[in-house]
Specification:
Structural class: alpha+beta
Strand content: 35-45%
Distance between the termini: 22 Å
Oligomer: single chain
CATH topology of the largest domain: Diaminopimelate Epimerase, Chain A, domain 1
CATH architecture of the largest domain: Roll
Length: 218
């Protein structure tokens, strides 16, 4: 691998109202420094975040997304973070073209539920039940959720990837929020992990918007 592969930005995506929390994301702005998929996978594993993005064309917004163990055709928080970083109106992913926009302190993407990887959406009776959950053993990818205020669309959620790669719980997961929004058919205000915030809204023809705050760590 080229020595420049260590050049990447670190973002926090879906931060809380105070600017804290959020899910860390690595973005290699010059994907040409790591052209090989195997090298990209190795770097994503070395960085160790839930996702790492390689930008193959910053003007078109063409990106390539990796977890520490596999390549993803689409993922929520990487798309929100990278669209904010590149300031582009869309991203080109293997799954399809993702719309992007900024609205005040929030950055939004528009994507289709069928692009999201499979997730088990597991409803609990109360937010306190979700808070008390232990990390399950590796296996299925579980998005545990409960209403905090159903009338207001406020949800408490936690995400357990079920992978044996050192990431027991995902702090903020846009793809799972997209799937939950599609299932419930309504806009949501999700409090996930230790204090991350994800906003969602159904759109015409089966599209869903997912938005949140993004901060540049370094």
């Amino acid at each position: 691998m080229n020595a420049r592969v260590t050049d990447y930005d670190v973002l926090r995506v879906f931060c809380g109202p105070d600017g804290g929390h959020g899910n860390e994301l690595a973005v290699v702005r010059d994907g040409s420094t790591v052209p090989d998929r195997g090298d990209r996978q190795a770097l994503a594993a070395k960085i160790g975040f839930s996702e790492t993005v390689f930008v193959d064309d910053p003007e078109r917004g063409a990106i390539d997304i990796y977890t520490p163990t596999l390549r993803l055709p689409f993922a929520g928080h990487p798309c929100v973070g990278t669209a904010w970083l590149l300031d582009v109106p869309e991203l080109v992913t293997p799954a399809g073209v993702v719309g992007a926009r900024a609205d005040g302190e929030f950055s939004w993407i528009e994507a289709r539920p069928e692009w999201a990887p499979p997730r088990t959406l597991r409803r609990h009776a109360t937010a306190s039940e979700v808070d008390a959950l232990a990390v399950p053993p590796p296996g299925e990818w579980i998005y545990a959720w409960a209403w905090e205020d159903e009338a207001a669309g406020r949800v408490r959620a936690r995400a357990f990837p079920g992978r044996d790669d050192g990431i027991d719980e995902d702090e903020a997961t846009g793809a799972a929020a997209l799937l939950l929004t599609d299932r419930l058919g309504r806009a949501l205000n999700i409090r996930q992990g230790t204090g991350s915030q994800i906003l969602t809204a159904p759109q015409p023809e089966g599209w869903v918007e997912v938005g949140g705050r993004v901060f540049l760590e370094r």
